[in-house]
Amino acid sequence: MHSKRGLPVALNYYRVDEELWKNPDKLLQLSSLALRSAQREKTQIKIRSLRLKELPNLSLNIEVMLREVGINDPQTLQLLGAKRSWLKLRSTRKNGRY
Fold it and tell me: Is 66 exposed, middle or buried (0-12, 13-18, 19+ CB in 10 A)?
């Protein structure tokens, strides 16, 4: 634990003792595993946190409209494709919702 402004902060660091410093092959292996794990975690967090409005050319208004027709995330939008997504939006407009 690390203290920042008087509050404890958890850090994702590993302590390297003298024995590990003396074994560079093991140190490199563990460092490589830690790096790959951190990169996977970062990618997963980025995927989960990506909102529709963060995609190019999509505003908050379009995100709201897409959510109303059941398109809640970028993966669903990509799966449906632009044409089917647009047709879903268009059909709700014809029904008087927009």
Answer: buried
